[in-house]
Design a protein that fits this description.
The protein has 182 residues and is of the alpha+beta class. The protein folds into two domains: 3-72; 91-180, H-NOX domain (Alpha-Beta Complex). Helix content is 55%, strand content 15%. The chain has a four-stranded antiparallel β-sheet, with helices on one face. A hairpin with an 8-residue loop joins strand 3 and strand 4. The longest helix has 24 residues, at 3-26. The chain is globular. The protein starts with a helix and ends with a strand.
Length: 182
């Protein structure tokens, strides 16, 4: 997985908990994760998926309730950190369907496995399916849901609802989300 996902999580810790928070995060972390925390994640570098999972789980356990709710917020933060800069213009003129279809086409730039398929249900509803992703994990699905939610909001729509219908990490045959808005 690309370092941008790890970098946005470390940025969240730094902004919300400072250097002391980063130190807490590094304490008792695996050696590879401690090195990433110490050096910072390089946005364009590929990192093992396991380090992404460990980072999210540690942040959620240390600074959240351990229920993955904070992981969804980290996904939202990731959208803000990466999409409100150079992509800002696209969000001013693009629809939710257009933005999410572009994001699905760019999946391979961020993940070395699988793809995201989009199906337009109606003008204010789409379904997104993670297809052929090698290592499904709740951290990933919850973070993606947060990213999708915030990405939709950035287009200017209201009342965005991202519902996870199925998740392979929970034993379902696929990872499927429904996105609705007004």
């Amino acid at each position: 997985m690309k370092g941008s996902a790890l970098a946005s999580r470390l940025l969240w810790v730094s902004l919300n908990h400072g250097e002391a928070g980063l130190a807490r995060l590094a304490k008792d972390a695996s050696i590879p994760l401690r090195q990433i925390i110490a050096r910072g994640a390089i946005r364009a570098t590929w990192y093992p998926f396991e380090e992404f999972v460990e980072l999210n789980e540690r942040i959620d356990r240390i600074f959240g309730a351990g229920d993955l709710a904070l992981v969804r917020e980290l996904g939202r933060h990731s959208a803000d950190a990466s999409l409100t800069t150079i992509y800002r213009l696209f969000y001013k003129v693009g629809t939710v369907q257009w933005i999410l279809s572009r994001a699905s086409r760019l999946w391979g730039l961020h993940f070395d496995s699988g793809r995201m398929a989009i199906r337009v249900v109606n003008p204010r509803e789409v379904e997104l399916e993670q297809v052929e992703y090698d290592t499904p994990h709740r951290v990933h699905c919850v973070g993606v849901a947060g990213w999708i939610e915030r990405s939709a909001e950035l287009t200017g729509v209201n009342d965005v609802d991202v519902e996870e219908l199925e998740c392979r990490a929970l034993g379902h045959p696929r990872c499927l989300m429904r996105v609705k808005w007004t």
